[in-house]
Amino acid sequence: MSTPAARANATCRFCGSHLEHTFADLGMSPLCESYRTAEQRNTMEPFYPLHVYVCETCLLVQLQEYVSPAEIFTEYAYFSSYSDSWLAHARDYAQAMTKRRRLGPESLVVELASNDGYLLQYFLAQGVPVLGIEPAANVAREAVRKGVPTLTRFFGRELAADLASRGTHADLIVANNVLAHVPDICSFVEGIQALLKPDGVVTFEFPHLMRLMEGNQFDTIYHEHFSYLSLLSATRVLARFGLTVFDVEELPTHGGSLRVFARHAAAAQPAVSERVRELALREEEAGFSRLDTYFSFGEKVKATKREILAFLIEAKRAGKSIAGYGAPGKGNTLLNYCGIRTDFIDYTVDRNPYKHGKFLPGTHIPIHPPEKLAQTRPDYVVILPWNLREEISRQLSCVRDWGGRFVVFIPQVEVF
């Protein structure tokens, strides 16, 4: 449990209750996307608490806002287009929603946190007008280069009111992996309600809290993820602002995500599907309406840390060389929580040129282009974005040619 001093300043972002109960405490950690340049390696680096609470009143699992969104997202290192599987996921969604919602030249699709245009480009290809809203200027520029109209703004009730006053309303609002990223979740959802046409639909994708707990996915906890959502908690948040969940899909992305479909509560259609009722019942039966369900996760995380360190210590004692693949936010959470630095992992590689020549936050593990692996031929390659393990191991089939093996740490240590 947290100290009385910490509890006194912790307040639920949804219902305003004081937060007293710990879900997971991962100690102190830097911002997961704050990659360091060579010049910054010898300068002070800020660390913040990575302490997740569960609200006793509304059961929303959440991290406090230690850093403003502007500090995290204004210059952002994550570009969605560097994952082939994620692009395929986006393309399939755009094609399915265009058909399902009968979108055409008179429609408007708005994506919140639209990144580098990875998704909206597929609506444009079908002749559907789009608007991206993306706060990170460096990422938004890439979207504009693709021909995706993009506003470089943070979304909330103020921006939504401004757009609505100028006659902009959306047939479809897409909020992929952003609902969990907003500290003012109430302003965000209220803005969606204001921007959505009376017969419009909004879809959200976010990591499923039930799958996070089942899969021991503690590395998906980092400072830019302010909320950790189940269907039950997301439904409560949306209902407060007049939005009704009418359908849900369970997705394999990010280790297990939900795609939630919602409409105005005042709209009679679409009707609430059986999938919503079935998943809500499963969450109820799994205990997600009881506070004590959330208390077992912290001990499971500690046990995994010990398992990871035991593997690394044994490998290094045996004289094995270890490199990483990827420089994702989840990897930085894991490495900092476990205290893994260049004493265990020599370097990591990443496809994103933006990260080349930089160093991971906190651990200062150097980041190289993927070609570095073939040059040094490590005995083990740790896949830090474990949710892409199949895609990455196929891309790096050459590792097996020199007898190298792959490793993932989540949900437990696995060598393959």
Account of the protein in words:
This protein has 416 residues and is of the alpha/beta class. It is 33% helix and 20% strand. A seven-stranded mixed sheet has the order 6-5-4-7-8-11-10. It has a six-stranded mixed sheet with strand order 14-13-12-15-16-17. The protein is globular and about 65 Å long. The two termini are 37 Å apart. GO terms for molecular function: methyltransferase activity.
- Counting structural domains, the number is 2
Low-confidence segments: 1-7
- What is the second-level CATH architecture of the largest domain? 3-Layer(aba) Sandwich
Structural class: alpha/beta
Report the total helices: 15
Strand order of the largest sheet: 6-5-4-7-8-11-10
Outline: globular
Short summary of the structure?
With 416 residues, this protein is of the alpha/beta class.
Topology overview:
Elements lengths: L3 H5 L12 E9 L18 E7 L6 E3 L5 H5 L10 H17 L8 E4 L7 H5 L5 E4 L3 H9 L4 E2 L5 H9 L4 E7 L8 H11 E12 L1 H6 L12 E2 L2 H10 L2 E9 L5 E8 L9 H12 L11 H21 L4 E4 L3 H10 L9 E2 L17 E2 L2 H6 L3 E4 L5 H7 L2 H4 L3 E4 L5 E2 L1
Parallel strand pairs: 4-5, 4-7, 5-6, 7-8, 12-13, 12-15, 13-14, 15-16
Antiparallel strand pairs: 1-2, 2-3, 3-9, 8-11, 10-11, 16-17
Protein name: Class I SAM-dependent methyltransferase
GO biological process, one term: methylation
Pfam family, one: Methyltransf_23
